[in-house]
Design a protein that fits this description.
about 230 residues; alpha+beta; 5 helices; 8 strands
Length: about 230
């Protein structure tokens, strides 16, 4: 399976200090998605959002001014495919001490992350991630990392429920506009007959179950809405 790519903002979220924290701000995520000028003489032309006046990089936006005024005063915006939206219950399961079914283990503290996307009548998608970048069995004791280099483990999921100054859990913003890995993205496109990049646009009903003291996994569950960003 593919490494834990851009999977949820969550796993790259709030507890990331310093440079790692900055790497997952909206100002880092939004430019990775296609944008076009929404109107005016350059309507429909590709553009890059301008973040020079942004005071809160943790708040995401579909539209912003364009770099170098490329849209001649119009907004630089993401465009979503019409009629292609999804709602799901997303469950992230992080286990910092994966167990063997028969009780035997040659390695302790192996870490795995499983993401389950329950689309209701449209089915259930699931993917499991581990650190597969090394050549030694002991490498499995390191958490899988997303494309921003952020390790995702039980502590990361716990930090995603921390309340920010706006009164919302960190994951409510951290998951927005973050593409899924290629396999999940392809599956979502096939189910909803879409061609764009699937992203989460709204997060609600955040719930954490932490049974680490019992040797069990930590589970983060939330409701999401999403759509497909059209290519520019």
């Amino acid at each position: 399976m593919t490494p834990a790519r851009r999977i949820l903002a969550l796993v790259l979220l709030a507890a990331i200090p310093g440079l790692a924290r900055a790497a997952v701000d909206c100002t880092a995520r939004e430019p990775n998605l296609p944008h076009i000028c929404d109107k005016g003489p350059n309507a429909g032309q590709p553009c890059v959002p301008d973040f020079s006046t942004v005071t809160d990089p943790l708040t995401c936006s579909v539209s912003r001014p364009a770099e170098n005024n490329a849209c001649l005063g119009a907004k630089c915006t993401m465009v979503f495919e019409k009629g292609a939206t999804f709602s799901a219950v997303m469950t992230l399961i992080a286990d910092n001490n994966v167990s063997a079914l028969d009780g035997s283990q040659t390695i302790q503290n192996a870490i795995a992350l499983t993401v389950v996307i329950d689309l209701g009548k449209n089915g259930v998608l699931s993917q499991t991630y581990q650190n597969l970048s090394g050549t030694e069995l002991s490498d499995l004791a390191s958490a899988p990392r997303d494309t921003f280099g952020v390790a995702i483990d039980e502590q990361r999921l716990q930090s995603e429920t921390e309340i920010r100054p706006d009164g919302k859990a960190a994951v409510v913003n951290d998951l927005l506009f973050r593409p899924q890995d290629e396999e999940l993205a392809d599956a979502l496109r096939a189910i909803f007959n879409a061609t764009g990049i699937p992203v989460v646009t709204k997060v609600s009903s955040v719930s954490l179950t932490d049974r680490g003291a019992d040797g069990l996994a930590t589970v983060l569950r939330l409701k999401v809405k999403g759509g497909f960003v059209a290519a520019s």
